[in-house]
Amino acid sequence: MFLSRALFIQSAFVAVIAATSFGATAQQAELTLYGARLKDATVESFVSAAIAAGAKRKTDGEFDARAIGVPALESFSLLASGKNLIGVQFKVERSGPNDEKLRQMLVTKYGEPQTKSLRRVQKFASQYIGDDSYTWTFAHEMLLTYKKPFFSSEATTLTYVDKGKLDALERAANAVEQRDASKKVQSHSDKF
């Protein structure tokens, strides 16, 4: 089953807010993962690329990423709308040498990220980093966010997301909730 839409939207929405409300890095080139262009990717095309890279399917929409060989990436879940991929969220080892190697790889490939506080991070690849959301912005409203939460009970995540599609999904979900609430009020209006 795909990652709970509400949970993924909540996590990804926090990353989007961090990047859009507080500023983001200069736009970079196309965002790809496992050789697949993420903008307008289908679930099928991305899953094929991920499996070819070594991912193992755990459940529908959840994959084990350890066999791919990228340090600290444990597993990932997909957010989709129909056949369209909206985002990919990785669970990351909370700390340690593998997490540091992953951050070094991210900096080598994308440069230093930006945090919610509008500051450019100078040492994202160092041994220790603060609890924050670190975001890179790409062409076509694509975002990559590394989120290290304050509480150790929350997972550290690396999220690739199509901000435009996520915003549209959020608007549609809100419209359905408002419509359902309105219907419920109308059906119970004689009771209060």
Question: What does the model show?
Answer:
There is one protein chain. This protein is of the alpha+beta class and 192 residues long. The chain has one domain (5-163). 35% of the residues lie in helices and 27% in strands. The chain contains 4 helices and 10 strands; from the N terminus they run αββαββββαββββα. It has helices at 5-20, 43-53, 97-110, 163-188, and strands spanning 32-33, 36-37, 56-59, 62-64, 73-81, 84-92, 114-115, 132-138, 142-148, 156-162. The strands form 2 sheets. An 8-stranded antiparallel beta sheet has the order 3-4-5-6-10-9-8-7, with helices on both faces. The chain has a two-stranded antiparallel sheet with strand order 1-2. A hairpin with a 3-residue loop joins strand 8 and strand 9. Helix 1 (5-20) packs across helix 4. Mean pLDDT is 82; it is low at 12-26.
- Helix and strand string, N-terminal first? HEEHEEEEHEEEEH
Helix content: 25-40%
Q: Tell me, what's the shape? A: globular
Number of domains: 1
The overall pLDDT, averaged over residues, is: 82
Beta-strand content bin: 25-35%
Overall strand count = 10
Low-confidence runs: 12-26
In the sheet with the most strands, the strands line up as: 3-4-5-6-10-9-8-7
Distance between the termini: 40 Å
| Derived structural class | alpha+beta
